[in-house]
Fold this sequence. Notes:
The chain is an alpha+beta fold.
Amino acid sequence: xxxxxxxxxxxxxxxxxxxxDLMSLLVCFFVLIISFSIQDKEKLQVVAGSMKDAFGVKENxxxxxxxxxxxxxxxxxxxxxxxxxxxxxxxxxxxxHNQRSKQGxxxxxxxxxxADIERPRQFATAAASLRQAWQEMxxxxxxxxxxxxxxxxxxxxxxxxxxxxxxxxxxxSKYPYETTRRLLAKMAPILAQMPNRVEITGHTTxxxxxxxxxxxxxxxxxxxxxxxxxxxxxYGVPDDQFFAVMGKSDTEPLFPNDPYLAANRRIAILLKxxxxxxxxxxxx
Length: 284
C-alpha cells in the first residue's frame, strides 16, 4: 500500500509559528507598558499642545497656578481650574475673584467684596487734568522740566524740582517764586476734586549753607512744604484733605549718586492711593 507524501514540503510546524507570533506580541505589549511607565510628561505636553494647534482645539478653561508656555508646564502641580480671563469693566479694579467666572460689577455679590474704583484710571485722569491746567500758563514752557509726575505704589507723586538756573523757591528761603505759586494755585482745584488725601514733603540738597546756623535744612524743607500747603489751601484744597506736611532735609536725594545736585531740592506733593477714612460724600 502506497503512503501519501506530506504536502507543503519541510519547515517549522504550524504551532511553532503561532507561538512565535504570540511571543512577539507579548514582547511589544511589555515594551509599551514600560514606555508608558517612564513617560516624559513635558514631552507629552508638547505633543498635546502641537496637536491642539494642528486641529484647532481651543479650551475655555485654564489651570490657574500653572504657567504654560506652548504646552510646557513650568510647575508640576496646579492650584485649581478657573475660567479664561475676561475683560474687566473699566470702572472697577483689576482685583481677581478666582471663584467666579465674571468680573467687575457682576462679581460683586454675596461674599465677594465690591471692587474699588480703578486706581490707574483715576490717577491718569488727575495727571491729564494737571497737565491741561498747566498748559494754559504761557510761562510753563520754560519750567516744564521742573515738573515730574510719577505714579507709584503710594499714589500719584507730583514733584516740583529745582534745575540749574531755574529754582522753584528763593535761595535759602521758604517763599516760592511767583511762577511756582501760580503752578500750585492751578493744581489746587484739581486736587480738591479728588477723594485722596494729600501728603507734602520738602527736600533740600547736601552742603547747603545758611546764614543762620540754627536754621538748618530740616527747618527749611519743612517750611517750604508748609508754604506749599498754605497755597493749596488758599486756592481750594480743604484742611481735612491734608494727611501730612513734613521736611526731610537732604536725607532722601532724588539722585543719590550726586547729593549736591540742584534737582535734589524739591517739593513732593503725593496724592495718596489709600482710601480716605471717611467717604467724601459722607454727611453727618
